[in-house]
Amino acid sequence: MILGIDCAAVDKNTSAWGEARANGPIRFAILRATYGDAPDQVFHREWPAVAAAGVTRGAYLFLRFPRTGRPAPSSPRAQAQAFVDTVGELTPHDLPPALDIEFESGRLATGLTAAQALDWVLEAWSHLSSEYGVPPLVYTSARIWSEELDDIAAPALAESPLWVAKPWPWPVRSAARRDGSAFAGGAFAPRVPSPWGSQWFIHQYQGDALGFPGFTSTVDVNRFRDIPLGATGDHVAWVQRRLRIPPSGVFDAATRAAVVAHQTANALVPDGVVGPKTFVSLCWS
Question: Which of 169, 212, 244, 273 would bridge 176 by S-S if both were Cys, CB 3.0 to 4.6 A apart?
Answer without folding.
Answer: 212
